[in-house]
Structures are given as C-alpha cells and as structure tokens.
Amino acid sequence: MSRRTLVLLAVVALAAMALAACGGGASTGGSSNAAPLNVTVTATEFKFDPATINATAGQTINLTVKNIGTVQHTWVLAAANVKLTIDPGKTATATFTAPAAGTYQYECDLPGHKEAGMIGQLIVK
Ligand SMILES: [Cu+2]
C-alpha cells in the first residue's frame, strides 16, 4: 500500500467521522422541530369545540378562541399558564408552548361553567 493511498484512506475516514457527527447533531432537535399548531376553539353555552387538542411536546401552539355564545367565557389551561377571557361575539388569541407529554385539562373557570360541560383536554405526545 503506497503512502498516497494511506493518506487518501485517512481523509476518507475523517470525512466519514465528520458526517456522522453532523448526523448526530441534527437528530437531537427532536419534537421541538414540529411546525406550529394553529387551532381555533369555539366557546358556547356550555361547551368547547373541539374538546380535544392534540400537540407535540415543545410545539408552539397558536390558539384562537371564539366566543359564539351569549355570555362571557374564559379558556384556562393552568399547565401552560394561559387564561383568556372572551366576551360574547369576541375572539381572543394566545401563543404558548406545549408542555411535556401528558394530558392536561382546559376549562372555562366562570362559576358553574366547567360543571355544565365547559372542559376539554390537551393531549401532548
Ligand atoms: Cu364559560
């Protein structure tokens, strides 16, 4: 084996290692690389539609809540520290980051509303 061949082999080996390192770095991005989730929830007496939102841990959620009912409602997700208060006929928005994997309840926290059915769940995977 000539000296030139050995040098060539060394260069090829180094290039392969560099590629492997790059590949490893790119794969650590994980779930936070998910595209933002745009979701619109309507609030009426007394429910949210949809009552289930699916997201990925670390995902940015652009939430719009439309109150198409006749009284004021709120949309509260304690796990992400989000609270919106929406007057009838109005729309409110919030942008937040999906928490770690799990199932989290959101609700309208006005007296009696949650009990009447104004709850939903954020399912994070
Ligand atoms: Cu309500």
Quick summary of this structure?
Helices cover 23% and strands 42% of the residues. It contains 2 helices and 9 strands. It has helices at 3-27, 113-116, and strands at 37-44, 47-49, 52-55, 60-67, 73-77, 82-86, 91-97, 102-107, 119-124.
Describe this structure in words.
The chain has 125 residues and is α/β, with parallel strands linked by helices. The chain folds into two domains: 1-30; 34-124, Cupredoxins -  blue copper proteins (Immunoglobulin-like, Sandwich). It has two helices and nine strands. It has a four-stranded mixed sheet. Strands 3-9-8 form a three-stranded mixed sheet. A two-stranded antiparallel ribbon has the order 5-6. Strand 5 and strand 6 form a beta hairpin. The radius of gyration is 24 Å and the shape is elongated. The model is unreliable at 6-31 (pLDDT under 50). The chain binds copper (II) ion.
Name some characteristics of this structure:
Immunoglobulin-like; four-stranded mixed sheet; three-stranded mixed sheet; 9 strands; binds copper (II) ion
Main structural class? alpha/beta
The parts where pLDDT drops under 50 for at least 5 residues are 6-31
CATH superfamily assignment of the largest domain? Cupredoxins -  blue copper proteins
Assign the CATH class of the largest domain: Mainly Beta
Small molecules in complex: copper (II) ion
CATH topology of the largest domain: Immunoglobulin-like
User: How would a crystallographer describe the biggest sheet?
Assistant: 4 strands, mixed
Question: What are the secondary-structure elements, in order, as H or E?
Answer: HEEEEEEEEHE
Structural shape: elongated
Number of domains: 2
Secondary-structure arrangement, i.e. CATH architecture of the largest domain: Sandwich
Tally of extended strands? 9
| Mean pLDDT value | 84
| Radius of gyration, CA atoms, in whole angstroms | 24 Å
For the record, give the distance between the C-alpha atoms at the N and C termini, rounded to a whole number.
54 Å
Strand order of the largest sheet: 2-1-4-7
Helix content: 10-25%
| Count of helix runs | 2
Portion in strands: 35-45%
